[in-house]
UniProtKB/TrEMBL annotation:
<feature type="transmembrane region" description="Helical">
    <location>
        <begin position="48"/>
        <end position="78"/>
    </location>
</feature>
<dbReference type="InterPro" id="IPR030922">
    <property type="entry name" value="LptF"/>
</dbReference>
<keyword id="KW-0812">Transmembrane</keyword>
<dbReference type="GO" id="GO:0055085">
    <property type="term" value="P:transmembrane transport"/>
</dbReference>
<feature type="transmembrane region" description="Helical">
    <location>
        <begin position="337"/>
        <end position="357"/>
    </location>
</feature>
<feature type="transmembrane region" description="Helical">
    <location>
        <begin position="7"/>
        <end position="28"/>
    </location>
</feature>
<keyword id="KW-1003">Cell membrane</keyword>
<dbReference type="InterPro" id="IPR005495">
    <property type="entry name" value="LptG/LptF_permease"/>
</dbReference>
<dbReference type="GO" id="GO:0043190">
    <property type="term" value="C:ATP-binding cassette (ABC) transporter complex"/>
</dbReference>
<keyword id="KW-1133">Transmembrane helix</keyword>
<feature type="transmembrane region" description="Helical">
    <location>
        <begin position="308"/>
        <end position="331"/>
    </location>
</feature>
<dbReference type="GO" id="GO:0015920">
    <property type="term" value="P:lipopolysaccharide transport"/>
</dbReference>
<protein>
    <submittedName>
        <fullName>LPS export ABC transporter permease LptF</fullName>
    </submittedName>
</protein>
<feature type="transmembrane region" description="Helical">
    <location>
        <begin position="279"/>
        <end position="296"/>
    </location>
</feature>
<keyword id="KW-0472">Membrane</keyword>
<dbReference type="Pfam" id="PF03739">
    <property type="entry name" value="LptF_LptG"/>
</dbReference>
<feature type="transmembrane region" description="Helical">
    <location>
        <begin position="99"/>
        <end position="122"/>
    </location>
</feature>
Length: 390
């Protein structure tokens, strides 16, 4: 890269990083605020909170990075044009190919990063997020029982506690176990605390008693205790086999799915659409960067408005994304629509390159077409009175 190209690259890179970090941070905060109930209501640790919200970052980056690149290219070109640097570069004989090189380099770097995140990192983050949320929801004490309420489980266990202490301990515990027909076990305790030990969760009861009633007997035995541990694994139903959605599966699993899996047979189109959406995602940063360059890459004096060019570029980006979503949706229903998933960004790239390299000819053609339409519109009112007079 020449010195002037490195200068342009630094401007675009700085703008891109600022947009990416700023937009990702804002959206991540809004997502994190929605998960605050993990701490406030469900009693999870701060580490679990940051783990769950942090696993959404790869997805946010893949969505925001192409937009941040588009904004960065628009900003850099407007800055260069506003300082009359584009005009000086053009007067010095700098061709559009050399001017495009730093922007194209940045776009290729972003495309490579998006491809890696989409193909490798995102499926892993989705799968880990699913596993973490499953563990959180399986936390009986944090997510099932409610303060001051009697909660009855399908397994035949009724649980109640009076209130939750500031340190997370449960006060005033009542627990009735009627899983075995004719046999009832009641646990009463002043307080209890959930404890993890060797991968198992136990409820450690303090200062209480156990009331046991045997089958076919009215008599019950009472055992008092200072500390007693109850295995909470019995409180939750056995876990069913976890079925991962297409977006939660690795790219290799999408390329070579298990043809005998029932879920795959029912949602084969979603597997196909997810695979090709991943493989085509790296094309969109390249397309958005080239659209911005095609719209604003030509030098113009500061008296010439560039707002129309920016508006046209934004409209092209919106149309591109809508077409991409439509192609992905069509790929779910039809195998033949897979070609459209790749064709949409590729056509946008080719048209942007055409405008960038043949911009003067395209603008001359547009200007001639607009002038002809204007003359035609002016001629129609003049002919109308003649027709009425005749």
């Amino acid at each position: 890269m020449k010195q002037i190209e490195r200068y342009i690259f630094r401007i675009a890179l700085g703008a891109f990083l600022s947009c990416l970090i700023g937009l990702t941070g804002v959206i991540w905060v809004t997502q994190a605020l929605r998960e605050l109930d993990l701490i406030t209501a469900k009693g999870q640790t701060l580490l679990i909170f940051f783990l769950i919200t942090g696993l959404s970052l790869p997805t946010l980056i893949t969505v925001i990075a192409p937009v941040a690149l588009f904004i960065a290219v628009v900003y850099a070109l407007n800055k260069l044009n506003g300082d009359s640097e584009l005009i000086v570069m053009s007067a010095a004989g700098m061709s559009p190919r050399h001017l495009m090189r730093p922007f194209l380099t940045l776009a290729l770097i972003v495309s490579a990063a998006i491809g890696f995140l989409t193909i490798q990192v995102m499926p892993s983050s989705f799968q880990e997020l699913r596993d973490v949320l499953t563990r959180v929801r399986g936390d009986f004490i944090a997510n099932v029982v409610k303060e001051g309420q009697f909660t009855t489980l399908d397994s035949g266990i009724t649980f109640h506690f009076r209130e939750r202490a500031p340190n997370g301990a449960l006060l005033g515990i009542f627990m009735q176990d009627r899983r075995e027909a004719g046999k009832t076990v009641v646990y009463l305790a002043e307080r209890g605390q959930a404890v993890d030990l060797d991968g198992q969760t136990y409820l450690v009861l303090e200062k209480g008693s156990i009331h046991r009633q045997q089958p076919n007997s009215r008599d019950s035995s009472i055992i008092t205790f200072q500390r007693y541990a109850v295995d909470l694994a019995a409180f939750t139903p056995p876990d069913a086999d976890t079925i991962y959605k297409p977006r939660e599966r690795s790219t290799v699993q999408l390329l070579f799915p298990d043809a005998n899996e029932t879920y795959y047979k029912l949602t084969k189109g979603r597997f196909r659409a997810e695979l090709h959406d991943r493989l085509s995602s790296w094309l969109y940063p390249l397309a958005l960067g080239l659209i911005a360059f095609a719209a604003l890459g030509d030098p113009r004096t500061t008296r010439q408005g560039r707002g129309l060019a920016v508006a046209g570029a934004i409209a092209a980006v919106v149309g591109l994304r809508i077409a991409g979503f439509a192609a992905a949706s069509a790929a779910v229903r039809s195998q033949g629509a897979v070609a459209a998933v790749y064709a949409v960004p590729v056509i946008a790239i080719l048209l942007s390159l055409l405008v960038a390299y043949q911009g003067s000819r395209v603008r001359a053609f547009n200007a001639a077409l607009a002038a002809r339409l204007r003359r035609l519109s002016e001629a129609l009112p003049a002919r109308a009175p003649r027709v009425r007079a005749g």
